[in-house]
C-alpha cells in the first residue's frame, strides 16, 4: 500500500467523522457546529480530527461529495415498472428522503459555500447532472404513458421542482426553531403537487 493511499482504519475513521458531522450539521446548522464538537461526537481528540480534516472546509466538501454521489444514483434510478401507478411517486419520495438525510446541504446552502467556496461551481454542476438524469426518468414515464408533458414544459417543471426542493425548508423555518417529520411531509406534498396535473391515471385491466 502506498503512502498516499489511506489505510482501511483511516477510511473508517473518516467515515465516522463525516457521519457525526452530518448529524450535527442537520441538527444545528453547518455554521454553528465547531470542530471541537465534531471531535467529541466522533469520540476523538480535536487534534486527531484535524489530522484527517485539517480544515472545516474539507469536511464540508467531503459531506457534499457523499451527497452528490447518492444524489446521482437516486436521480438516475429508473423505476422498475414505469407504467405502475406508484412509480413516479416512489421515485420522487426517494429523492425527498435523500434531501431530508442531507437537509443541511439545502437549508444551509449559503453557509456551506461560504465555508467551502470551491463548492459553488459543484452545486451548479450537480444540479445540471441530476436534472438531466431526472429528465430521462420522466421521458421514460412519458413513453410509458404515465405522464403527458412536452419537452419545454418538462424543463420548466424540473426547474420549479428543484426550486421548491431547495427552498421549502427555509420557508417552513419561519417562526420555528427546527424542522420535523410533519414539515418533511409538507415539503414533499408541495413538490408532488407540481407533477400531479401531468400524471395520467393508471390503466386497469
TrEMBL record:
Q: Where is the HTH tetR-type domain?
A: 11-71
Q: Which residues cross the membrane?
A: none
Recorded hits in Pfam families, A to Z, give:
TetR, TetR_N
Q: Which InterPro entries match?
A: Homeodomain-like_sf, HTH-type_TetR-like_transc_reg, HTH_TetR, Tet_transcr_reg_TetR-rel_C_sf, TetR
Annotated DNA-binding residue span(s): 34-53
Q: Which UniProt keywords apply?
A: DNA-binding
Q: Which domain of life is it from?
A: Bacteria
This protein is called TetR/AcrR family transcriptional regulator
Give the organism the record lists: Methylobacterium komagatae
Amino acid at each position: 500500500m502506498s503512502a498516499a493511499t489511506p489505510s482501511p482504519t483511516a477510511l473508517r475513521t473518516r467515515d465516522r467523522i463525516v457521519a457525526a458531522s452530518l448529524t450535527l450539521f442537520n441538527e444545528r446548522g453547518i455554521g454553528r457546529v465547531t470542530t471541537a464538537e465534531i471531535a467529541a461526537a466522533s469520540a476523538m481528540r480535536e487534534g486527531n480530527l484535524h489530522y484527517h480534516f485539517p480544515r472545516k472546509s474539507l469536511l464540508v466538501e467531503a459531506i457534499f461529495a457523499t451527497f452528490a454521489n447518492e444524489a446521482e444514483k437516486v436521480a438516475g434510478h429508473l423505476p422498475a415498472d414505469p407504467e405502475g401507478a406508484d412509480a413516479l411517486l416512489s421515485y420522487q419520495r426517494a429523492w425527498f428522503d435523500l434531501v431530508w438525510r442531507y437537509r443541511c446541504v439545502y437549508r444551509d446552502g449559503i453557509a456551506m459555500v461560504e465555508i467551502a467556496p470551491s463548492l459553488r461551481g459543484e452545486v451548479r454542476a450537480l444540479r445540471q447532472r441530476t436534472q438531466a438524469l431526472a429528465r430521462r426518468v420522466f421521458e421514460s414515464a412519458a413513453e410509458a404513458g404515465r405522464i403527458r408533458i412536452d419537452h419545454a414544459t418538462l424543463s420548466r417543471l424540473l426547474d420549479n421542482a428543484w426550486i421548491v426542493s431547495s427552498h421549502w425548508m427555509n420557508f417552513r423555518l419561519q417562526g420555528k426553531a427546527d424542522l420535523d417529520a410533519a414539515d418533511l411531509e409538507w415539503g414533499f406534498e408541495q413538490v408532488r403537487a407540481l407533477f400531479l396535473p401531468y400524471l395520467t391515471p393508471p390503466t386497469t385491466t
